[in-house]
Amino acid sequence: MVGTLVSVLASILGRIHPVFDLPGADAYAGYCMAISAFMALAPTLRRGEHIRVTLLLNHLPEPGRGMLDIACHLVAIALSCALAWFSIRLMLQSHEFHDISSSLDATPLWIPQLGMAIGTSLFVLAFLGDLILLLRGEPLRDPATDNEPARIE
């Protein structure tokens, strides 16, 4: 987020004073926003702040609820593994083919894609951590039962 702020400020200053001109500052702001979004996936999941649709889950008896939660985590792990795999593959291909951005900065694309690959890999690890907690019978962090006010309200 700080990188996004710095890039936007550099772009604004570049329009006012040509001394501060940073070619591709808009592209850098976009890269920083994308990296911050992907890097926030795992911590947001671990804090229990991703949106969960619990309509069916809340109406099941306890054994069924646990089994459905484990099944959902297995599906989430499979999907997040696919996302991580393709993110890493994209980054490696961009590095191999020396792919650069089409904007004025000509940044090697593997650099911003590295943040996406790391963020999606950490997302997989966060789901695995939650699955291990579920299999041990330990509760996941539930924002509804915490004393802390929900951030989504």
The count of β-strands is 0
What is the average per-residue confidence, as pLDDT, rounded to a whole number? Answer: 84
- How large, in whole angstroms, is the Cα Rg? 20 Å
Helix and strand run: HHHHHH
The domain tally reads 2
Query: What structural category arises from helix and sheet content?
Result: mainly alpha
Compute the number of helices.
6
* Ends apart, CA distance between termini: 22 Å
The profile of the biggest β sheet is: none
Question: Would you write up a description of this structure?
Answer:
The protein is mainly α and 153 residues long. It folds into two domains: 1-39; 41-153. 67% of the residues lie in helices and 0% in strands. The protein contains six helices and no strands. The protein has helices at 2-16, 25-39, 41-46, 55-58, 62-96, 110-136. α2 runs parallel beside α6 and α5 (62-96) packs antiparallel against α6. The chain is elongated and about 65 Å long.
